[in-house]
Amino acid sequence: MEFMEVLLPKEKDIPDFLVLLQETMDEFNIDFTNFSPQNIVQEKDAIYARLPINMTFTANYFETIKFLDRLENFPRIVDIRDLKLNPTGDNAENVNISMTMFTYVLMKGK
Predict the structure, then answer these.
(1) Which of 22, 30, 98, 108 is the most exposed place for a label (fewest CB within 10 A)?
(2) Secondary structure class of 10 (helix, strand, coil)
(3) Does 66 have pLDDT greater than 50?
């Protein structure tokens, strides 16, 4: 397998990525309230496309930091955008998080 294919999975490998993401969320006790993969977006003449995933979840602040660190070191390219943290109100250590995550997909024939 080429290095590029490790960082940029092919479109058919998206379910494997989502399973890995779910396992990671379980490991860090991430209680998600919304997990919505969106349609793949391809820029003109690009060899890759973006898969946006909107997420909202509640977790312990420190577990959230560990989770984000793990995403930074994922075997696939992951880009976090629009990260918002808000206190939950009932537990000072927990936060409500909303974010958009992008992973990138190698397009067919490229």
Answers:
(1) 108
(2) strand
(3) yes
CATH number of the domain enclosing 66: 3.30.70.60
Structural domain of 82: 3-106
Token pair 């960082």: residue: 7
pLDDT of 64 over the 70 cut: yes
Mean pLDDT of 91-105: 88
What pLDDT score does 102 carry? 92
Helix/strand/coil (H, E, C) string of 41-109?
Answer: EECCCCCEEEEEEEEEEEEEHHHHHHHHHHHHCCCCCEEEEEEEEEECCCCCCEEEEEEEEEEEEECCC
The structural domain count of the chain equals 1
In whole angstroms, give the CA distance from residue 1 to residue 109.
16
pLDDT of residue 43: 80
**What b/e readout covers 48-87, taking b as 16+ CB neighbours within 10 angstroms?**
bbbbbbebebbbbbebbeebeeebeeeebebeeeeeeeee
